[in-house]
Amino acid sequence: MKKITALFLVLTMLLALCAGCASSTTAEQPAAPAETETTPDASAEGIPVDDVTPEAPVEEESAPAAEPVEIIVFAAASMQETLTQIGENYQAAHPEVTITFNFDSSGTLKTHIQEGADCDIFISAGQQQMNQLDINASAEVNTEGLDFVLEGTRGDILENKATLCVPEGNPAEIASFDDLAARLQEGTVFMAMGNSDVPVGQYTQKIFAYYGLVEEDLANAGLLTYGSNVKEVTSQVSEGTVDCGVIYCTDAFSAGLTIVDSATAEMCGQVIYPAAVLNVTKNEEAAKAFLEYCFSDEAMAIFESVGFSPVE
Question: Backbone phi, then psi, for 273, in 5-degree steps?
Answer without folding.
Answer: -105, 110
